[in-house]
Amino acid sequence: MSDATNDASTPGTYVEPGQEYTRDTNYIEDRITQDSRDGWPVEAGRYRLIAARACPWANRTVISRRLLGLEGAISLGLPGPTHDSRSWTFDLDPGGVDPVLGIERLQEAFFKRTPDYPRGITVPAIVDVPSGKVVTNNFPQITLDFATEWTAFHREGAPDLYPERLRDEIDDVAEVVFRDVNNGVYRAGFAGNQKSYERAYDRLFSRLDWLSDRLEDQRYLVGDTITEADIRLFTTLARFDAVYHGHFKCNRQKLTEMPVLWAYARDLFQTPGFGDTIDFEQIKKHYYVVHSDINPTGIVPAGPDPRVWLTPHSREDLGGRPFGDGTPPPPPVAGEEVPAILAA
Predict the structure, then answer these.
(1) End-to-end Cα spacing for the chain
(2) Nearest-5° angle of CA 100, CA 113, CA 49?
(3) DSSP-derived secondary structure letter, 220
């Protein structure tokens, strides 16, 4: 996520000296729904999801889209792993231009919606292709709507990621995971004073201990199948050792030193739709290059070795049905693959 300014060469500022980090959670809250309540109807081929591989919030939407089989209904645009203070850019595409939207910067879609849009130009964002306007960047709602509003375009065998009977529990778990873990690592990493950092650090590891206890005897966070709650936790765990442990000083333990959470994370990583959305090189490049006020040298770590993610986890011994009454998704569509991790 970036600060929106008019200077394309200036890096963003992420740490305010002396201040506690507070995330701006004011997003464009329009929804794409079956009843078109906000003027945006569910319509295959009309919208484009912009979701950088590096970003954990965007990663959620890519996983959900994969599991539900929405690739044919919602196209995917992939910005590069780095951005300046102005916007995410499409530097991975030929000529640095998104091939569907015809823009170099995601900022252009925000400006078509609201000229001189004053907030951060963030991913994930969904863009209306005909108008070129951003529809929403409200990442918590996007995946819920994928699960509940886009059902007409779900693949055969798509799992129920937000089962109605479990929604209250999923919401409760997701709320504390966001506060203490998903956003907690940022509150530690972007803290501008020692006390703020230590508060965030303590809350993070207390919550990870709580999650470890919860997952010791059950395979998934809520119920016996993969749900929205697991997707939301996974994208933080996938980045923990590569980024948050060192770069954000979340260093009581590595994920690999927390046996239950490490086995849980590997279980999900090895499940189709999860690990095949993860690009560790893009993840590391984003954090260590973009956050220049934390890592002024711009040096990107060589490790850790990603092959550890392929080691056995034995979580299947706890039972559970990953996709419920559904089936695993097929392999990623052409052009959406990530580099494979080769076993040692």
Answers:
(1) 35
(2) 40
(3) S
Residue 9 has pLDDT above 80, yes or no: no
For the chain, give the mean pLDDT.
Answer: 95
By CB atoms closer than 10 A (0-12, 13-18, 19+), residue 33 is middle
Provide φ and ψ at 119, rounded to 5°.
-100, -175
Contact 70, 32 (CB under 8 A): no
β-partners of residue 48 are 75, 127
Active site residue 250: no
Active site residue 55: yes
> Model confidence over 265-293: pLDDT tens digits?
999 999 999 999 999 999 999 999 999 99
Q: Which of the following is catalytic: 14, 21, 47, 55?
A: 55
Give the Cα-Cα-Cα angle 188, 54, 159 (nearest 5 degrees): 100
Q: Which of 14, 47, 162, 186 is catalytic?
A: 186
Supply the pLDDT for residue 32: 98
Q: How far apart (Å, rounded) are the C-alpha atoms in residues 196 and 319? A: 40
CA distance 61 to 126: 10
Query: Of 255, 251, 249, 248, which Cα lies nearest the Cα of 291?
Result: 248
